[in-house]
Amino acid sequence: MKLDVTALGTFYQMAQEGAGLAAGRLTRMTDVDTRVGVTKLNFMRGSDIRSELGDGVRKVGVRVELTGALKGHAVIAFDRESAAHLVQTLQPSAGDGSPPEDADAEFDEMNRSAITEVGQIMHSGFIDGWADVLGSAIDVSTPEYVDGDSAEPFLNGVDTAPGTDDLALLFQSQIEAIDTEIEFKYYLFPDHDSMEDVLDQQGVSSDDGIEYDKLAGFDRLAQRGADEVASNVSTMTGIDTDVEIRRLNFVPLEVLPEEIDDEMLVGVAFEFDGVPSGYLLFLFDEASAREVVNAMLPTAPDDEFDAMGQSAIKELGNIMASGFLDGWANVLDTTIDHSPPEYNHDMGAAVIDPVVIQLGEEQEYAFVFDTSVQAADREFDCNIYAIPNESDLERAINDLPMDRIEEVPTKAEIEEVETDS
Amino acid sequence: MKTYGSEPGAPEPDPVRVGISEFEISDSGQRLKSYGLGSCVAVALYDDQSEVGGLAHVMLPDGDENDDMSERKPGKFADTAIRAMLRQMVESGASYTDVEAKLAGGGDMFEFESFGDGVGQRNVVAAQEELDKLGVPIVAEEVGGQEGRTVEFDTGTGVLSIRTADGDGTIEEL
After folding, report:
1. Which A residues in the span 43-82 are in contact with B, Cβ-Cβ below 8 Å?
2. What number of other Cβ atoms are within 10 A of residue B140's Cβ?
3. Which residues in chain A have Cβ-Cβ distances shorter than 8 Å to B39?
4. What is the pLDDT of residues A251-265, one digit of tens each?
């Protein structure tokens, strides 16, 4: 199965159209004003999906099976608190049907049926949107209520759910309820053959596009690069970090600045050159950047963002960039050079939009390797965006020697790097 | 990127968020806001007689060179966004000859080789040239530099407020 940018663009439109309809129907049903936030196509490994669903926050959900133009399963999962809020909105009067006071208590029959109804209405919104874009009908099974604090109840019996190392295409949409906290995640697990049919209908020829299996291979590589980055951070700073979330997104470029909060960030940016070429950004919130500076400098500075502090953050960025890109280069058996680090301390979106603009001259969509590195016991949170030039990435992935992926070392050499230029 | 899923007749949020590649106009004094402009440019147009105004959050300079995309998303490009916004404003009662422009944004925070003269600079020049071509005077601008800006345009008064990150929270008004 091959993916090309046009066909993925169609999937993207499906996700966006579906989210718009689902938001409208949620509003009609609950009288809560909603708007569609960021929509993304994610490629996520089965193991990552399972850890996201089992993140310790109890969830309730509604799942359906799809047949017709698109076969597979779809699951909508609300945090328990959001679900309680929804029930409250639908049945505001106390007594029968209002959510249980105790946050851990089970929802009663009335609550569950209210949640199932909302879930069904939202599913039908999403699915009608997809069917509109595809121009053919998708049938939906009776909705099923699911509840639990691990991934199991949500994925049990979903035969299209991906295996640990398989890559699933997910539609990720945010519908924000204005002035109300309702959060949910939407997962579509399409049947492999059915998705291939859809791609065929979108006119993907066998010559164009990216081989799906190779994309999965490249993604495994990115995982190792990310692990390497986390381990480099631990070595350099003594802060014990781990890769928390990792996704391969396919999004219109302008989604990237849109999804970043309007808070101050410290960013270290690189351009990299080779096959692929592109940009690499490390974004720290201010507290994390302070933590890094204090961990790296022998004595705590008065101002963490002075010249010394900036230089320390750039140095760490340099090591992280090498860790990330060396893994790619080794497996691709090529050289990927990166520029000296560029430091920026500014409003979130402003740190990333120059890169988006530069890439936007040539391409509408981008594959974004999105990684979050966090520390368990300290304030450390770093988001990494690797955004390759799309045509280069396609070339690099198609040249990927699959047999080399597991055997090639991704270890970066840590050496002193001159960051003051 | 934000499409409102509200039913018709529901109250509009205030300020209205104008996302990257979007533009909004208002003839009812709404406030229009764009967050964290780096190299993007905010183009505010206003006719103070009819009190019709609009704000565009443009990402790229030249839509005429890219007509496939600019037909779908005119708000993405400086030239097509300005023309589309002006047209909608006139349809809402603005008088073309009374419309004036204010610009903000277009900073250049990175000095990468691939960026050439600077991506922000290219956007600013494109907006200035298009406005010049259309005969719309630029009455104020706060562009370039190396800092991000959040802008809010009050279409009741025509004031464009700009907040930068390195300031002490002060807001500059154009």
Report:
1. none
2. 15
3. 353-354, 357
4. 999 989 988 877 899
Give the number of C-alpha atoms closer than 13 A to the C-alpha of residue B88, restricted to the C-beta side: 17
Which CATH number characterizes residue A194's domain? 3.40.1550.10
B18: exposed, middle or buried (C-beta count within 10 Å: 0-12, 13-18, 19+)?
buried
Asked if A135 and A283 sit in the same domain, the reply is no
pLDDT per residue as tens digits for the range B75-110: 999 999 999 999 999 999 999 999 999 999 999 989
Instruction: State the pairing for strand pair A241-252/A34-45.
Output: antiparallel
List of domains in chain B? 17-173 (3.30.1330.200)
User: Is B40 tagged catalytic?
Assistant: yes
Contact A149, A14 (CB under 8 A): no
Measured between beta carbons, which residues in chain B are less than 8 angstroms from residue A31? none
Cβ atoms within 10 Å, residue B167:
12
Q: What is the ipTM of this complex?
A: 0.90
Q: Is A266 on the interface with B (CB under 8 A)?
A: no
Which candidate from B2, B7, B69 shows the least CB-CB separation from A36? B2
Give Dmax (Cα) for chain A: 69
Q: How many domains does chain A have?
A: 2
Same domain, A145 and A269: no
Global pTM value: 0.86
Q: Which residue of B has its CA nearest to A175?
A: B5
- Phi/psi of residue A178, each to 5°? -70, 130
Indicate whether A174 and A268 sit together in one domain.
no
DSSP state of A380: -
Do residues B58 and B41 touch, judged by C-beta distance below 8 A? yes
Q: List Cα–Cα distances, B145 to B39, B78, B104, B122, B164, in angstroms.
A: 10, 19, 11, 13, 11
- List, in order, residues 6 or more apart from A406 with CB less than 8 Å away: none
With an 8 Å Cβ cutoff, is A351 touching chain B?
yes
* Catalytic entry in B40, B58, B124, B160: B40
Domain membership of residue A222 (yes or no) is: yes
CA gap A212, A2 in Å, rounded:
5
Domain that includes residue A385, residue range: 210-404
Same domain, A188 and A258: no
